[in-house]
Amino acid sequence: MSASGWTILCDFDGTISVEDVIDSLLDRFGRPGWEVLEQDWRAGRIGSRECMAGQVELLQMTRAELDEHLRELWIDHAFPGFVAKARELNVPIRIVSDGLDYAIHQILGRYGLDRLPLAANHLAPATPPKQWQLTSPFQAEGCRSGTCKCACVAQARSTGDRTLLIGDGASDFCAADRVDFVFAKHRLIEHCRAAGIPYMPITGFEDALEYLPRLLDGSLAQHAHYHEAAAA
């Protein structure tokens, strides 16, 4: 168990990063066909792991082009301060992402944060040149996601820690059902409200920075949103 009694599991794309990395890569380097995979995923015909593996195979870019593109992507300006505050309060942070490990390391490296523990899909060069492939070292049996965030929650809880999830979208829904508290953005707010999950809505890490000490000392619980009526 950590000294604080809490562990943070944090999504990357759209939560830490300002925009979705894989979407930005597909818009710039994707060959035709990736939109069909996206539609199949949104319709529930395929899981995110199958969708992303197929989309990555349609990327056509050199590593230099990839690195140049990643240098143009940014993170929430308050995230480094949030990491510093979490360390000060002895709360471990693990990034849990259905995105690309290489991209996350490259982007966070510019901020000196690339040593944060990470669970994500693995991006690797393929043949012929300019082709790429995706593997999912953090998948789990019965889960259609590349990274099973529920398994990450179970691992964190096995230490005895309570768990805080910070996320924004569909890849966080299942994990949100299993944690002790959620800092929610965008679509995750609606999921938490509908499911009766204790959460606080955030617009970014400035809010998270304000709420974290209050979560740890217990004073945030009385302000938590649980359902439609409590959120009104």
What is the gist of this entry?
This protein is 41% helix and 17% strand. With 232 residues, it is α/β, with parallel strands linked by helices.
Would you kindly provide a written description of the structure presented here, covering whatever features stand out?
The protein has 232 residues and is of the alpha/beta class. The protein has a single domain (6-231), classed as 3-Layer(aba) Sandwich (Rossmann fold), CATH 3.40.50.1000. It contains eleven helices and seven strands. It has helices at 21-29, 34-42, 48-57, 63-70, 79-88, 101-109, 149-157, 173-176, 187-195, 205-217, 228-231, and strands at residues 6-10, 93-100, 118-126, 131-135, 162-167, 181-184, 199-201. The chain has a seven-stranded mixed sheet with strand order 4-3-2-1-5-6-7, sandwiched between helices. β2, α6 (101-109) and β3 form a beta-alpha-beta unit. α5 (79-88) runs parallel beside α10 (205-217). The protein is globular, with a radius of gyration of 18 Å.
